[in-house]
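=== RUN LOG ===
request id: a7f3
mode: sequence -> structure
chains: 1
length: 164
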Amino acid sequence: MSSSVLSKYTKLKIYRTIIFPVVLYGCETWSLTLREERRLWVFENMALRRIYGPKCDVITGELRNPHNEELNDLYCTPNIVRLIKLRRMRWAGHVARMGRGVHRVLVGTAGGKRPLRRHSRRWHDNIKMDLQEVGLAGMYWNDLTQDRDRWRALVSAVMNLRVP
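=== RESULT ===
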């Protein structure tokens, strides 16, 4: 990625077609914590900094790494966390419409006691948080998925939200 032989276009193509799918494999079923989301942002920004390389500062004339906002402007596609949320919402709609057996396996809980510590975030907790970002906090997401057009609109709304 830091090779000067390859063009930026070729590096971006490699990133989108090889690295990105490997990193996001199975992300529909992940239950991400904020720490893991932050680590994914760091990974994406690190890869983009390697692709785009240092920038010349206008004021001092020195080379510096581009800031996160500059990387977002250069890359012009949704960040990695937003894509994970999009895929998770799509998958949630698909699973909810599949039937009770599949849905029970995905959102079910294991038997036994939970360890004494902070509750870990579950997959359907992430779906509820994504819906809360859109403004549908009180609604039960499983019922929303039955109307495909409305669910598709919600998925695109989640995709278009800006993440700091």
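=== NOTES ===
Residues 34-52 form the longest helix (19 residues).
Residues 41 and 162 are 14 Å apart (CA to CA).
=== END ===
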